[in-house]
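Protein 1 of 2
SEQ + STRUCT:
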Amino acid sequence: MAPSQKSSNRKDGKKPNRRDNRDRADQQIPQNPRRDGIVPTEAALNSIPEHFSSTNTDRDYTLGNPGPSTPIPTRTTSANHKVRPWSFFKVGRVLVIDWVEPHGQSPCETSRRLMSHHSQIRKTAFSEFRWFVVLATYAKHSLALAIHTYNKRAVPPHEPSEHFGFAFTGRAAPTWDQAGISEDVESQMLLPVRVLPDLNTDDLHPTSTMHYRKIYTIEHNVPLGPFGVVHPDYIDRLFAQASTTLRFNLPVPAAEDIATHATTSSAAQVDPARALALRNEYIASIRTFMERMVTQAAARQVEASHILLLEAAVLSLGGPLGQSEDPEAPLRRAALRAAEQFVRQRIEGNDK
């Protein structure tokens, strides 16, 4: 009995090969304009904000809503987001921007709060509305601190609380119980900074804080929206605390370079002489403490390399540091605790 003949789709009667199957599949599946090989859904395309055109769907943007780490989204409509003139970016300006970041590998709250998609290298990204406070302005960009709520915890776990300070609206800063933290954590935080919103209906969540060790770059050609300004009585505090924690020479702004609010009668100002006096007092107190610790380390016959390391730390205190006008302020106590911990770790490490 003759073997049965299999049907063939080729006109020449030959059996189709794998390449023919691939060619047929290419004809059936529409070409995808994205470089990462993922076809955007219709819902995703419709949810792109107005300041992102549909032709930019190959960019690594995640389309979603503000996550639980952001303050209450009151000024986040795309109509309010547009490219602002250079005069908008003044010290103390609080703005809102659709911020995009890559996902982290660890299961932190920023990595799981929004839907995401694959980027060109098969990693994921997310976007959220994020609040920023401008610290310094240059020709085409500004340096700023971000405002977070950290999933309504004010200070994230396993982070030093002396790097955080409240940003609040209203007449009084939130108390430790309103912010959902312990009284001990609040005592270690930096002093709060008051924000005046542009609209009376806008406010910040009681758990809104700024991480003074994280500084961001805001490009001036990015669409963003206004929220408010830092209260003029708190500009000096913001500037001193940022300079202290960052150990970074922030340019001292002139009066005309500081954002003002329509309801304030007095203009905000940073007094360079006062900032220098606070800085010198702070340096003197920390240097005295650490020199005493170096002497104790030498008396306990700690290795010479450790003593040199401690002496280098003392010399490094000549950097751009500052202090609050209150000698018992959390800023001063936090710095003393950090210096003490720095020294004791090296002394105890040598004893083991």
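Protein 2 of 2
SEQ + STRUCT:
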Amino acid sequence: MEVYAPMALQLVCTFFIVISWIAVGLRVWVRHFILHSFGRDDWAMLLTQIGLTIWYPSQMTAIHYGAGRHMWNLSDRNATIALALIYFNEISYFFVSVLVKTALCLFLLRIAKERIHILILKNLMYGNIVVGGAFFFVLTFQCWPIASFWNIDPISAQDCVPPSVIVGLFYGMSALNIVADWTIGTLPFFMLRGLQIPLRQKRIVQGILAFAAIGSSATVIRTPYLAGLADSYSGRGGDFTYKIGGILLWTCVELSVGIIAGSVVTLRPMIRAMFDRFGGSYTDRGCDDDFRYRTQ
């Protein structure tokens, strides 16, 4: 585990960041060059991807210096650098998480017709921003001075919020994320009932949107690892760099899956254009105008 865990972390995160960039790139191409209707949800998703991309090298560097490895196997310098980067990853996670859910809600608001669906999406989006912002503030200033977080001397923990509070906050945020993911994943099943598109087309769109809820599975799997946050600011007195490994892995999966699912669902016009270009037949073309134009 000591040898292969860091490599596994890097490979998994690199795979997902590449796939997410492909998905977002195709989304930008479809919305800007095919539909000529680049909207707020597209800007939000692009900003989310940029945020994830900024987060990615920080995570890779943290792994290089010791994240995923036992604290007692790290030099003082490497342990300090790894802890500083882990701190940055913690606070940036909430920023990217809020953005990806905002982008998904903005997309669904394009096709929402009923007042109840619009209210649910707006409350979910604004509530997510407020709660995420509050968590971001607490985590940013969990230690004062902030540098106490990556001080390998356990005495520095006296300058920080008790680790039990941080663990509780992460458990609470994880629960809220699961609720938000499943709301975003299941609401389209009700929203698309009123659109005049074939049943097969509805199932495809609903399935892709529900895929975003899989991100909550990563959140669920990550939950047992959150207990490792109790070693925050324990320095040489704990094994925080090792215990954070599972959290970093599943955080990367959670954020990337949300971006990928939210982008893939916008690619139907590209598929239609490909069939036209290569002489194929795109079934039910004339029946999905309602969905096509409402998502432009």
